[in-house]
Amino acid sequence: MLKNVIAPIQAWLMSRGQCVGCGTPLSKASHVKRVGGTEKVTCKCGRIFIFDPKPKTYRRALFSEV
Ligand SMILES: [Zn+2]
Q: I need a labelling partner for 50 at 20 to 30 A (CA). Which of 2, 21, 22, 40 fits?
């Protein structure tokens, strides 16, 4: 039940380019280029995201991408 509330908030933060854990703008986090043109973004709180420069979108990194 709780997940139903948290998921839209996380999606909203992601769409704004903010960490879903601590709300820090991911543009301020460290970006490391990956094969394929995307960037791995590590937030200061330890969460890892993938940044796609073309649509300029962030998403949570998959386990296999960490
Ligand atoms: Zn964070």
A: 2
